[in-house]
Amino acid sequence: MVEKQDYPQSELFSSPDSSGQYKGQLPKNPFFLRMRGYEKVMLLIMGLVLTSIIFFSLGVERGKRIVVSKNNSTDQLGFTIQVATFKNKQLALREVQLLLKEGLTPLAFAKGGYIVLCVGKFSNQVSAQPLLIQLQRTYAGCRIRRL
């Protein structure tokens, strides 16, 4: 004999007062709350690395555009002849005096721990070529470079 129960079985069937349509329930805790602590940290690190890479690449592309526009607009006096580099400031100043006596326009600037000695300012490499040939007789390793 089966006894009658006072309450309906609600585990498998919907309640009698529902309209008969299935209403799906949303999970009580969202995806991010179901994750473990270390998984959250790893996702956060991967997201930061990905956004860093994206912003870095965008910055590089922007920098390339800026350099191209600067080179096209101001290309005057862009070359010089590098004569020598010195570690000692006194030797560099002595060489500058010698170049001034020869009637050349020397230019000395510091780069790292060295003093770079250059001669002249030219708009292109072709215009610097005759002076380079003349200076190579005295300074064996001189070369044309950008300012």
How are the secondary structure elements laid out?
Layout (H helix, E strand, L loop, with lengths): L30 H4 L2 H37 L5 E8 L2 H13 L4 E6 L2 E9 L2 H11 L7 E4 L1
Antiparallel strand pairs: 1-3, 1-4, 2-3
Task: Give the overall silhouette.
Answer: rod-shaped
Give the beta-strand count: 4
Overall average pLDDT: 80
Examine the coordinates and then state which fold CATH places here, giving the name of the CATH topology of the largest domain. Answer: Alpha-Beta Plaits
CATH class call of the largest domain:
Alpha Beta
| Total separate domains | 2
The CATH homology group name of the largest domain: Sporulation related repeat
| Radius of gyration, whole Å | 38 Å
Termini separation = 105 Å
> Spans of 5+ residues with little confidence (pLDDT < 50)?
71-75
H and E order: HHEHEEHE
Q: Which band does the percent of strand residues land in?
A: 15-25%
The CATH architecture of the largest domain: 2-Layer Sandwich
Q: What is the helix content?
A: 40-55%
Structural class: alpha+beta
Biggest sheet: strand arrangement: 2-3-1-4
Q: With helices defined by DSSP (H or I, 4 residues minimum), what is the helix count?
A: 4
Main β sheet profile: 4 strands, antiparallel
